[in-house]
TrEMBL record:
This is Glucosyltransferase 24 catalytic domain-containing protein. It comes from Nannochloropsis salina CCMP1776. Residues 1-124, 155-447 form the UGGT thioredoxin-like domain. Keywords: Endoplasmic reticulum, Glycoprotein, Signal. One of its GO terms (biological process) is ERAD pathway. GO terms for molecular function: UDP-glucose:glycoprotein glucosyltransferase activity; unfolded protein binding. One of its GO terms (cellular component) is endoplasmic reticulum lumen.
Length: 1377
């Protein structure tokens, strides 16, 4: 077809589909038979409305949604599922549909009208956190909306900045205008403004901190445009303060650390006692005050035993890069002090300065600064061993890696702010401008990590599913409210659940109650800080004691119920009730010893009253009118705390409670279970990680501020529509407020779960197209009943909330798959569909070159049928399967690679039999893939070369012994560096992925993350259990880490150049000493028969790899196998790629193996979806020849010889097998250059290739030897795949993929050049050299086309051959037909 006739094919198809009575049937008929429909379609005149509409839709997609809304995508309530490429799997669509329906069934339990439920579903796609993530902005929110920690306000006296870019002399020559940020730059802009303020929080007693300090010293000396500061604290000192063994308030340093420092200095231990961070902090502050910042900085960078120092002034570089090992003793620190001052003062009186330092420590000078450092870290909750850049905190001591990423993100953000005009040259403080807005926190909590929030355990507080009693529990819990807010609707519901009688439980309960009392929920000050009235929460305390715990929390839980019921009193009384509860929790925590028995519990409350009375009489902390109200209220509650508590306890013991509240609310313990007693904080269904610590009152401020950022205000507006929008508080009756608050909590819990996967507001996008020309391309397709009537869904609350929207190019490859899927969804699932046709407005190549059928069987049909195929064409069959499927041909008479009609006696014969026009093929799903990624969980990098085995999951199980013995070792592989990918083959069932015996198990162990992501936990079974229970594409994740003490031992030994060039014995000894460790004890099994690794038989076996497609090349492959077996003097085993072989060939190969006494193994590998795909079958075959050599064969195979199917051997392959490759991973034969007629076709002799090769030969890929041991050891497969993925972006590169790739990479992967006689080809080699040839290859000639069979009969004949090609062919035919 001419290009000018192709131009409008997309528009013509869209117009035809839109005008059809049944658009889906027309779409399927066009897309799946397009080559036969194109000519007629091209004659259709396109209406202007469709041409304009397509342009409008394309423009809207490009400007509004980027790559999210691209043709070939199906959206289930905004949840995108791609239908393009190899990752497509219809079972993924069905699984997503089933999951969506189950979720909507849960939503149906929400006590709200259908309209509100539909609005909740739409809200999930428009949530701000998910909206910016789905548009490719990653974890960064809009400018000014990011979560940051303000550690700088109130830090006077604690933070000391080492430099100031706006004032220091060394930065004076830098430009000062922020407009510099608008210029493109691949590095940090050097601007004389404090754009980046970095604070490093270190405990110098931790050996891991010295690398971070050395990095800080290095980048400081190189004049990075960053303002630096440090906080030097001791974790031991912070622990003493937390345990009340000292105070961080003014004057508290004496008890906290000064007395201990003075004792060491004045005693005999200053030369042997290890120094502490508080000692360094004292001297650091004293130096700054006494001798200036330059001396203090020199002291900081000169610390450490064995460390070097130099004054980092001006542009001078700090000498030395060695990282100190430890802080050293008091004397070592004082020595660094004296040397720093002496150098700065240019004085030789270092001894005098040492005495000055000792005196300062005794006098406590600098102690105030050290105390303020500790106080700042404690009050702001800053983790020790973290880095803070402009308020963005990362808990890491890998400063170099963290800083580069953070600085790049900050520069991009600042550039956006300058461009938007929110940051100007007149801005006094860039840091101050960044630390404004709702995302700024005054205290750090791990919940500030957006990834942690999104991945935290969450459960819907609705009926059905996991936690089915959650709705009932939410509706009957007793809630505490901030005083005076009970009649307000609450957007945040907080539940503290666990053993309230534990130390952490009591501390957390008192902190939560204090937060309610002192939150200033309606004060003008709070409103000014947050720019809006803070949302008051409601809180519940649920006591679930551990089985062996002392039940201190039962009284507190009972009194919580009492206070909740009685808090309908006035504001003052409500505050007093909360105050009693808070003081009771504090009292129970402080009381020593175990709690009394149940019958004696009221005595605890009496003791609590005695404490309050004594405080009142002595004028204690609660003296005055408030103290009187506290005591009076506590006395009024005594009856409830004694007799009422006893009765409630008896009733609780006699009640059959069924499932626990913990189960109902879906709370998980740290190890992923639901262990009673572990403490958890749940906010609107989402579990907050408490990190194993007690809750702090300021933590609640951070947590609730973060939780209220996304859904709070929209949910309040939805669930409480009658509330005045400008009212300070939406007042209602307490009962009404309770009902609406319950509704908000359930709706919020639904969204926390439902919106975890990014959704797209596709319906909003389609609304933009209404009343535009693109509306003509929008199809609303309603389900049809049996009589053709529309099927109503108004009575089905689930289906009425399910929206299926599709964006589709009618002539895209996805349309061929999608048409039958959409028809099934409409006609069998009765789902309404919205389809936006998005044709390409102008085509310049033929869009669909294949006939296509999709095997989706909603009925009992089990076959697909191609009809009316053109008899004049030669067709090739290709099976389009999901990524996880290994599908092979089980029965076919015809050559599926070359389907064509032959001329018979009675005319054209197109079928399996004479007179028939039908041909059939039967396919079988042979096995499924277990694929995934394997990472070092600590380093977060691939563990390339790690050996994995797949074993039967029933091993050791009752009744599974026979199966386990038969399939114990099913398959093995190694982990690629590319994408950390691994691939194994399995059948449906339960399987286990294990580390292979030997070096893998000696160095590594399998670990997992706890549910909160806090820590790595060793997996006791040392395996990953995989359940292949469906046909979806499931990607597994295997996490490992080095075993303790083996962190520095490499998995793969490095091979240096001397070894590569050494003798064969030296290299083999080196390689196999490693590989014997790698796979020690491994007994490979092939179809139940061990290969006998290490046995004499296996060592003598020559392994030959080959592949073929089509009957012609399969015929030649059989002849090649016969010639190899005849010429080779040792046993031979053939490894044949099964992907393209016909059933007839596989049967013949097995018959030949039995007759000629060689072995045959059929191997397969699925091309990973992340590696750039090839579409032409010949290029796919070329890819399999080179890209997967490290993973195609069992790990026990140490060497392989590849032989092309169209070759015949004249020599013994054992000779090639034993050839010394001189340390190279593989060996190829260089192209012949002895035939002058074809020298002009050797493109590598000039131009780009000649320059690139730099004198190296260009090799032919028809025969090569691979030393798989060294190939794997050197990671050659990873390198080849990486280069391929880069070069294949250009479709014109790698024209001869299997040859060009290894030749191109010779500079990084050396090739051993085989002697020329190992491959003779008539096209390139002279006739005279044929007599020396050891293999004959039938390569095509560029001078003239010749039939392969004619060439074989002509070339492989005569006195040079023991048997001619014809004789070999006849011998094979006689055996297998």
């Amino acid at each position: 077809m001419k290009v000018w006739r192709m131009r409008d094919l997309g528009l013509q198809a869209a117009q035809t589909i839109a005008a059809a009575k049944d658009p889906l049937r027309k779409l399927q008929e066009l897309a799946q038979n397009f080559p036969s429909r194109a000519t007629r379609l091209s004659s259709l005149k396109v209406k202007e409305e469709y041409r304009t509409g397509a342009a409008t839709a394309l423009r809207s997609r490009a400007l509004g949604y980027g790559t999210v809304l691209k043709p070939g995508t199906l959206f289930l309530n905004g949840l995108p599922r791609s239908l393009a490429g190899p990752i497509f799997n219809v079972f993924d669509i069905l699984k997503a549909l089933r999951g969506e329906i189950r979720t909507l069934q849960r939503l149906a339990h929400l006590p709200a009208p259908p309209a509100l439920q539909q609005q909740l579903i739409g809200m999930a796609a428009t949530a701000p956190l998910l909206a910016h993530a789905s548009e490719g902005q990653g974890r960064r929110g809009p400018p000014g909306q990011e979560t940051r920690l303000d550690i700088y306000r109130g830090s006077k006296g604690a933070l000391i900045y080492l430099n100031n870019l706006e004032k220091d002399a060394q930065y004076k020559r830098w430009p000062s205008s922020l407009r510099q940020l608008l210029f493109p730059s691949w590095q940090l802009q050097t601007i004389a403004r404090n754009l980046y303020t970095l604070t490093l929080v270190l405990d110098l007693e931790d050996p891991n901190s010295w690398e971070a300090l050395a990095t800080l010293r290095r980048i400081y000396s190189r004049q990075f445009p960053v303002r630096f500061s440090v906080l030097l604290v001791s974790q031991a000192c912070l622990a003493r303060a937390e345990g009340k063994q000292g105070s961080l308030e003014a004057g508290g340093e004496e008890e906290l650390f000064l007395a201990g420092v003075r004792e060491v200095v004045e005693g005999e231990g200053k030369h042997r006692e290890p120094a502490t961070s508080e000692v360094v902090g004292m001297l650091f502050h004293h130096l700054r005050d006494e001798h200036g910042l330059e001396a203090a900085t020199a002291f900081l960078f000169g610390l450490g035993v064995g460390g070097s120092w130099e004054v980092p002034a001006g542009a001078g570089a700090v000498g030395g890069e060695r990282v100190p090992a430890e802080l050293g003793t008091y004397a070592d620190v004082v020595s660094a002090y004296s040397q720093a001052v002496a150098v700065v003062k240019k004085s030789w009186k270092g001894g005098a300065y040492a005495e000055e330092a000792w005196a300062a420590l005794v006098a406590g000078k600098g102690g105030e600064g050290a105390r303020l450092m500790h106080k700042l870290v404690a009050e702001r909750g800053i983790p020790v061993g973290s880095v803070v850049l402009n308020g963005k905190l990362q808990v890491t001591l890998d400063l170099e890696e963290a800083l580069m990423q953070m600085l790049g993100e900050e520069q991009q953000l600042l550039s956006q702010m300058v461009g938007a005009g929110t940051l100007k040259d007149s801005t006094k403080s860039v840091l101050g401008a960044l630390l404004k807005g709702p995302g700024v926190m005054e205290r750090y909590h791990p919940w500030m990590d957006e990834d942690l929030r999104r991945e935290a355990p969450a459960v819907m507080w609705l009926g059905g599913g996991k936690g089915g009693r959650a709705r009932e529990l939410v509706e009957r819990l007793d809630y505490l409210h901030p005083p005076g807010t009970r009649a307000e609707v609450k957007a945040l519901t907080v539940v503290l659940q666990g053993d309230l009688g534990s130390t952490e439980g009591l501390a957390s309960a008192s902190a939560l109650i204090s937060f309610l009392r002192k939150g200033h929920w309606r004060s003008e000050e709070a409103a000014a800080v947050s720019k809006r009235k803070k949302e008051a929460p409601r809180c519940a305390l649920v006591h679930t004691p551990a089985p062996t715990a002392a039940d201190k929390g039962a009284l507190l839980a009972h009194m919580t119920r009492v206070v909740s019921c009685r808090s309908e009193a006035g504001e003052e009384g409500e505050d007093a009730l909360l105050q009693v509860l808070e003081r009771l929790a504090i009292f129970l925590r402080a009381e020593e010893g175990e709690a009394a028995e149940v019958g004696e519990r009221p005595s605890a409350y009496d003791r609590f009253l005695d404490v309050l009375k004594k405080e009142s009489e002595a004028g204690g902390p609660e003296q005055g009118p408030e103290g009187s109200a506290l005591l009076r209220t506590a006395e009024e509650l005594r009856e409830e705390a004694t007799e009422g508590f006893r009765k409630a306890s008896a009733q609780e013991q006699s009640r059959d409670s069924g499932s626990s509240p913990r189960e109902g609310l879906g709370v998980q313990s740290a190890d992923g279970g639901e262990e009673e007693g572990s403490l958890a904080l749940v906010v609107n269904g989402r579990q907050v990680d408490l990190g194993g610590k007690a809750l702090h009152p300021l933590d609640m401020e951070v947590i609730l501020k973060l939780e209220s950022q996304v859904f709070t205000l929209p949910l309040l507006a939805l669930c409480n529509p009658r509330a005045p929008p400008d009212a300070e508080a939406a007042k209602a009756s307490p009962a009404t407020a309770r009902r609406i608050s319950d509704l908000v909590a359930m709706a919020h819990s639904f969204l926390n779960v439902y919106a975890r996967h990014p959704r797209v507001d596709v319906e909003g996008h389609l609304r933009l197209l209404q009343d535009s020309p693109a509306e003509s391309l929008l199809l609303d397709l309603q389900p049809l009943g049996s009589a053709g009537a529309r099927v109503g869904q108004e009575d089905d609350p689930v289906l009425s909330n399910l929206s299926v929207t599709v964006l589709l190019d009618p002539l895209g490859e996805a349309a061929q798959r999608l048409a039958p899927i959409l028809t099934t969804l409409r006609d069998h699932f009765h789902l309404p569909l919205r389809v936006l046709l998005a044709p390409h407005p102008e085509l310049n190549e033929f869009p669909l070159k294949s006939y296509y059928r999709f095997a989706l069987f909603p009925t009992r049909e089990t076959h697909v049928l191609f009809q009316s195929l053109p008899p004049s064409l030669v067709l090739t069959t290709r099976v389009d399967t999901p990524e996880a499927w290994n599908v092979q041909t089980r029965q076919a008479l015809q050559d599926l690679d070359n389907l064509k009609c032959e001329q018979g006696e009675t005319g054209l014969v197109c079928g399996d039999r004479e007179g028939s026009s039908h041909t059939s093929a039967e396919l079988v799903l042979k096995n499924l893939l277990v694929s995934g990624q394997c990472f070092d969980a600590k380093l977060l990098e691939p563990v390339n070369g790690l050996q994995l085995v797949l074993v039967d999951g029933l091993e050791g199980a009752e009744g599974g012994e026979e199966t386990a013995g038969r399939r114990q070792h099913h398959s093995d592989t190694l982990v690629m560096q590319n994408n950390a990918y691994f691939q194994l083959r399995a059948d449906p069932g339960i399987w286990k992925v294990r580390l292979a015996e030997g070096r893998a198990r000696e160095l590594y162990e399998v670990v997992r993350e706890d549910p909160m992501g806090r820590a790595l936990v060793r997996v006791p079974e040392q395996e990953l259990v995989v359940a292949k229970r469906d046909f979806t594409n499931a990607l597994e994740t295997l996490r490992v880490q080095k075993q303790a003490g083996k962190e520095d031992i490499p998995l793969l030994d490095e091979i240096n150049q001397d070894e590569a060039e050494g003798g064969k014995e030296q290299r083999e000894s080196k390689t196999w000493s490693t590989l014997s460790n790698l796979w020690a004890g491994r007994k490979a099994e092939v179809e139940g028969k061990p290969t006998g690794e290490g046995s004499g038989e296996e060592d003598e076996t020559v392994h030959v790899f080959s592949l073929a497609t089509g009957h012609l090349y399969e015929r030649m492959l059989k002849i090649m196998m016969l010639s190899v077996s005849k010429r080779t003097s040792v046993p031979v085993k053939f490894w044949l790629l099964e992907n393209f072989l016909s059933p007839a060939f596989k049967t013949a190969a097995l018959a030949m193996a039995e007759h000629y006494n060689f072995q045959v193994e059929f191997i397969t590998y699925k091309w990973p979806d992340w590696l750039r795909q090839q579409t032409e079958k010949q290029r796919i075959i070329w890819g399999y020849k080179i890209l997967f050599l490290d993973v195609l064969f069992p790990l026990s195979v140490k060497k392989i010889i590849y032989v092309d199917a169209d070759q015949v051997l004249r020599a013994d392959l054992k000779e090639l097998w034993d050839l010394d490759l001189k340390g190279r991973p593989y060996a190829y034969t260089p192209f012949c250059d002895s035939r002058n007629e074809t020298l002009g076709f050797q493109f590598w002799r000039s131009g780009y290739w000649a320059t690139h090769l730099q004198g190296r030969p260009y090799h032919i890929s028809a025969l090569y030897v691979v030393d798989l041991a060294r190939f794997r050891l050197m990671g050659v497969g990873d390198k080849l795949r990486a280069v391929y993925d880069q070069l294949s972006r250009d479709p014109n590169s790698l024209a001869n993929l299997d040859q060009d790739l290894p030749n191109y990479t010779q500079h990084m992967i050396p090739i051993f050049s085989l002697p020329q006689e190992w491959l003779w080809c008539e096209t390139w080699c002279s006739d005279e050299s044929k007599a020396r040839a050891k293999t004959i290859d039938l390569c095509n000639s560029p001078l003239a086309k010749e039939n392969k069979l004619h060439m074989a009969r002509r070339v492989i004949s005569g006195p040079l051959f023991n048997e001619s090609w014809v004789e070999l062919d006849e011998e094979v035919k006689a055996l297998v037909g």
